[in-house]
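for the recovery benchmark. tokens below, seq after
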């Protein structure tokens, strides 16, 4: 795995990971089973061979677990919060549910069967553990996992066009120099910033902002099509307090 791919996986996993708790009693506790999910990012197209893929779940614990996959579509509200709506009717998932013995793996096949899209559309395939009845008549609390796999459905030949449309020098709350930027994706495909850096010139200085600082400032690794994102990034030295020149580098 390349360094940029590894950063993407970590970023998407951090963005996707949600832990759920289901209480089934009041006495005692049963610890969560450990699993491995691969991949954590799936790219699909609306038709053809690329409209389908697979997700592999490995049970690294000793006890059997029960798993189901649930699809939802993601969207962003005007206030920046993320909304989720059920999307099971837009995917075929096989099997819908499965029991995975300890130390074994289960492959879930997914296929997009929804309507055509004119731009990359974000979905989530939620890997959810189902409660099971233990043979020892255990009563207590089960910790159940819920791991979200990011799924992007795109038209064929979709491309991203990321560019910085506004940039100005500023000062961060802790007194360090920074730059306020606005990144726009005017393409019809989602754009990733894991392999991109930013070069800023202003106030007689020129600095480069690495991708990891961009990711930390934006809080995400992917920018949907037709979307702008605002962020304030730290810079190694002051570029002044007015408008500056800023460009993105990388593929």
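predicted aa per position
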């Amino acid at each position: 795995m390349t360094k940029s791919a590894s950063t993407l996986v970590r970023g998407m996993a951090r963005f996707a990971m949600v832990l759920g708790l289901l209480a089934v009693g009041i006495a005692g506790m049963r610890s969560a089973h450990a699993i491995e999910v691969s991949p954590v990012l799936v790219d699909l197209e609306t038709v053809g061979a690329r409209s389908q893929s697979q997700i592999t779940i490995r049970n690294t614990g000793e006890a059997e677990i029960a798993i189901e996959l649930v699809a939802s579509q993601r969207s962003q509200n005007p206030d920046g919060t993320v909304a989720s709506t059920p999307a099971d009717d837009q995917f075929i998932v096989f099997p819908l549910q499965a029991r995975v013995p300890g130390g074994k793996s289960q492959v879930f096949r997914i296929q997009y069967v929804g309507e055509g899209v004119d731009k990359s559309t974000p979905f989530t395939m939620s890997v959810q553990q189902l409660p099971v009845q233990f043979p020892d008549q255990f009563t207590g609390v089960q910790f159940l996992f819920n791991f979200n796999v990011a799924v992007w459905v795109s038209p064929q030949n979709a491309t991203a066009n990321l560019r910085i449309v506004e940039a100005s020098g500023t000062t961060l709350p802790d007194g360090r120099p920074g730059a306020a930027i606005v990144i726009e994706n005017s393409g019809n495909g989602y754009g990733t910033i894991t392999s991109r850096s930013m070069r800023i010139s202003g106030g007689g200085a020129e600095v480069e902002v690495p991708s990891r600082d961009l990711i930390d400032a934006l809080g995400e690794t992917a920018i949907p099509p037709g979307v702008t994102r605002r962020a304030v990034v730290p810079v190694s030295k002051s570029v002044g307090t007015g408008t500056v020149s800023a460009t993105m580098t990388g593929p």
